[in-house]
Amino acid sequence: MHVSPNDNKRYRYFTLPNALRVLAVSDPAAHRSAAALSVNVGHFHDPADREGLAHFLEHMLFLGTDAYPLAGDFQRFISQHGGHNNAWTGTENTTFFFDIRPSQFRAALDRFSAFFISPRFDADAVDKERQSVDAEYRMKLNDDVRRIYQVHKETINPAHPFAKFSVGSLETLADRAGQSVRDDLIAFYHANYSANLMTLAVTGPQSLDELEAMAQQHFSAIINHDYSPLRIHEPLISAAQRRQWVTVEPLKEVRKLTLAFSLPESEYQYRTKPLSYIAHLLGYEGPGSLMSLLKSKGYINTLSAGGGISGKDFREFTLSLALTELGLSKLDDIITYVFQAIQLIRQYGVEAWRYQEKRQVQELAFYYQEPLRPIDTVSQLVMNMQHYDPIEVVYGDYMMAGFDHAQIQAMLQQMTVDNLRVTLIAKGFKYDKLAKWYDTPYAVKHFSEKQCEKWRTTYISPALTLPDPNPYIADALRPLPLEDDASDTPILIEELPGFRLWHGQEPHFRVPKGHVYIAIDSPHAVASVKNIVMTRLSVEMLLEALNEHAYQAEIAGINYNLYAHQGGVTLNISGFNDKQPLLLALILDTFSRRNFKPERFEVIKSQLKRNWENGAKNKPLSQLYNSMTGILQPNNPPYQALLDALDTVTLADLPEFVEAMFATLHVDMFVYGNWHRHQAKALAETVKDALRVDDQTYQESVRPLTLLDDCGTVSYELALDHAESALLVYYQSPDTSSEAVATYTLANHLMSATFFNELRTRQQLGYMVGAGNLPLNRHPGLIFYVQSPMAGPNQLMAAVDDFLNALFMILLEMSEARWQSSKQSLLAQIREPDNNLRARAQRYWISIGNKDYHYERREQVAEAMESLTRADMVRFVVNRLKPRTADRLVMHSCGSEHREHAELDGAHPIRDIDAFRAICGRSEE
Ligand SMILES: [Zn+2]
User: Fold this and answer.
1) DSSP of 38-76, one letter per residue?
2) How many whole angstroms from 669 Cα to the centroid of ligand 1?
3) Which CATH number fits domain 491-596+651-702: 3.90.1150.10, 3.30.310.50, 3.40.630.10, 3.30.830.10?
4) Which residues contact 912 (CB under 8 A, 6 or more apart)?
5) Could you state, in order of their start, the residue ranges of all structural domains in the chain?
6) Which residues, 6 or more positions from 340, have their beta carbon under 8 angstroms from its beta carbon?
């Protein structure tokens, strides 16, 4: 098997007697085990009169087997032992996966494999889970991605299985005369699921022999019917859909143009990747690119190439463009330029050196790939096993086996007007059709002769050119030797007024990669909502000015990100570190020029405006969350406040604002990974020069948090135009000690699976249900949330309160063994070592932000947790969480379907946020 020389895991690929293909991956250093199983059965297999059946089956397999008949048993077992599980149904595959503590792997596999051996499909569970699928469908009724996806389905060849509705609903899954959905479910399962269509990936610290034996023992009993994989004989696009122009009305303020070429199946070309080569050139963002040209004309904001749906027998290749207002009136011209760019590649762009360059980047990425979490490893590999040759399951995604001029040209020859379909997503057009299931308005016409003629161009604008060789591809391919005094943890190596530098040469992962963080705190940046908005505008303008020139760096595996936060802005550079100084110099240079172009200012302002307006249309739970953090974190205003302030900002405000911001800086810098100390210092010098840091005396910005001590239950209602109701309950710890973090974290771990099982699986209140940890600033916290098509906020609140009132009993009734194993698995999770350099760099950076300069916090939390007793937890639940006495914030919105239901009672409504904050305490970090 082809694996990276830097990969210390061991692999074994084998086939069980029932034809199940298995990949075992042994990683002695792993702290958890994981498994994934994929079956080559997806929504394409749904019977015409039972749309969504494959998806429904995916849900039902979790809900009871002969060996383990209880519906919530699998989930509870996994989460009790510190694991996670999930599944998804795609077009041609359904995939299930989980992870868990290694000591429980065998027991978990016994439960997991039973899904595919003896599922029960209990009538009662079938009946309830149907509601859950329906809630999943209804939850996405206002989701543009789904709404537009449905139009896509309706405008391709109706005889192709992609045309079918994939989610399912109460209607498609209803019992009909003489035909119960349970019978259909069982029939579907037996007619499609078969061991020969399945792949299984297992990983853990166990040896290959042990893993193989476990696979054999638990999965050999899956029946092999020797079914053939589904072949699709219908083309995705038939003559009637060629040269088709579809206009779709979105709910959100978006303007998007998608060009889709229908190409022959290309999965078998994974070794040479001709389409990635083409996507790389068409999607290029540097000077002379299609993107650069269309942007300079003011037609578009973003462009991406190479997406599109694909399967065993079909492939779409798309180009997606986010349009400006002006672009919306220049569609024919935009498409003309696209064809010119394709023509340019056809004539001059198919060259071996370009392929080699891309290949080198891929090889580097493969050689020095960062270890994934075990659950991600198996989820990825199990899909690769479905598509790639056994020897290439690890390498397949990266491999570029050789430049094949003819193969690339053959693909380019198919990117013609006759093979094109265009989808325009924008408001303000005429739509004469409504998509089924989602009621999306849309219209279909064909290209005019005039359009076709215009697009069959052979002319190429001189403004379009091909990329230059990439200067950012790493030369130094070996990690630097370790310095004599290299330390495991970061060390503060420079401390001046207003400037601190931490450095660490990472001794463990030994990859030629590095992370640079530069946090620029400025009280002026966050002094008012208007300043917060100006900070974000400046960030966007800077990113925009950078993009064209920094794009090559991204291609070469160096990433950069600049983002605004509660204290100012942070710049992060990561990836191969060899050429990072070059990129940093470019960024700082762009920074210092502060070139605020008026035409781009207007475009970016309107883009931000649309983003925030769209945020204000997100699903109810997201909006409750956004509004809640707005109440609690004054430096993190909600969308509406940002929008109001944005209206008042003009271009003339920016230069002065930025000057004032730079006059009061405090900079924390962290250079970590493959860097020697003198290199870190050199990077710091360039930063200090560019930001004019000298003798500053400024402190970090203050990050205020509203405290809820002694406020009782307070509530805030959001009036939203949505069918479903939503409720979010937030508990905040008054103190930030390690003991408090341990208590809140353990409480969440002990109850979240039960909460989910109670409100979603048993009561069927909605699809989005959960409990989680929510630390804000440094205060630990807990949230409970539910979004429901079934019940209004008062009923949801009652369900949450019933749960919380019963919680101490659940804790008391828990067996000693279960209590111990829950706690131990959480402790193991907390102490789990970092998976890769990225995770480690991030953890240290967060520690620095939390002023945990000895990097001991994690261990202190673990120690505090070790000493927590069951009595402590019961006391915590009774004193802090019990509804009658708790301090908590309840965010809620009433769905249009529930206006008749009783209003939320038992809470003090917040009428005025400022007044509320004034009576509350406030922490300032
Ligand atoms: Zn689902």
Assistant:
1) EES--GGGS-TTSTTHHHHHHHHHTS-BSSS--TTHHHH
2) 44
3) 3.30.830.10
4) none
5) 10-219, 239-372+385-455, 491-596+651-702, 705-924
6) 457, 459, 460, 461, 464
- Give the model confidence (pLDDT) of 93-142 as tens digits: 999 999 999 999 999 999 999 999 999 999 999 999 999 999 999 989 99
- For residue range 651-679, list pLDDT tens digits in order: 999 989 988 888 888 999 999 999 999 99
User: How large is the C-alpha radius of gyration of the chain?
Assistant: 29
| Gap from CA of 924 to ligand 1 centroid (Å) | 42
Pull the structure tokens for residue 423.
């989808």
- The CA 59 to ligand 1 mean position distance, Å, reads 6
Q: Which CATH class is domain 705-924?
A: alpha beta
Q: What is the pTM of this model?
A: 0.85
Q: How much distance in Å is there from the Cα of 191 to the middle of ligand 1?
A: 21
The Å distance, Cα 140 to ligand 1 centre, comes to: 12
Candidates 193, 56, 184; CA nearest to 113 is 193
Q: How far is the CA of 56 from the centre of ligand 1 (A)?
A: 7
Interval between CA 747 and ligand 1 midpoint (Å): 27
Query: Interior CA angle at 375 toward 370 and 380, to 5°?
Result: 70
CATH number of the 10-219 domain:
3.30.830.10
Cα–ligand 1 centroid distance for 164 (angstroms): 16
Strands 781-788 and 725-732: antiparallel
Q: How many whole angstroms from 54 Cα to the centroid of ligand 1?
A: 10
Share of the chain above pLDDT 90, in %: 81
Q: What does the pLDDT look like over 237-275, one tens digit per residue?
A: 999 999 999 999 999 989 999 999 999 887 789 999 999
- Find the 171 Cα to ligand 1 centroid distance in Å: 16
Residue 766 CA, ligand 1 centroid: distance in Å: 12
- For the record, the structure tokens of 862 come out as 């673990």
Name every residue whose Cβ is closer than 8 Å to that of residue 183 and which is 6 or more positions away in sequence.
none
* Cα–ligand 1 centroid distance for 834 (angstroms): 31
What is the distance in A from the centroid of ligand 1 to the CA of 57?
A: 9
Q: Do domains 10-219 and 239-372+385-455 have the same CATH topology?
A: yes
CB 527 within 8 A of CB 714: no
Q: What is the mean pLDDT of the chain?
A: 93
In angstroms, what is the span from residue 22 Cα to ligand 1's centroid?
26
> Who's near 487: CB < 8 A, 6+ residues apart?
504, 505
CA of 101 to the centre of ligand 1 (A): 26
Distance 893 CA to ligand 1 centre (A): 24
- Tell me the pLDDT tens digit for each residue of 754-808: 999 899 888 999 989 999 999 999 999 999 999 999 999 999 999 999 999 999 9
Beta strands 491-496 and 499-505, pairing class: antiparallel
Start-to-end Cα distance in the chain: 52
* CB 609 within 8 Å of CB 646: yes
Residue among 19, 20, 13 at smallest CA distance from 392: 13
CA 189 / ligand 1 centre spacing (Å): 17
Rounded-to-integer distance, Cα 132 and Cα 765, Å: 8
Report CA(167)–ligand 1 centroid distance (Å): 7
Ligand 1 center from residue 728 Cα (angstroms): 22
pLDDT digit string, tens, across residues 677-716: 999 999 999 999 888 776 666 677 888 999 999 999 999 9
What is the distance in A from the centroid of ligand 1 to the CA of 88?
A: 7
* 602 Cβ contact list (under 8 Å, min separation 6): none
C-alpha of residue 138 to centroid of ligand 1, in Å: 12
Domain 239-372+385-455: give its CATH code: 3.30.830.10
**Both structure tokens of 27:** 């990683």
CA of 382 to the centre of ligand 1 (A): 20
Cα–ligand 1 centroid distance for 400 (angstroms): 35
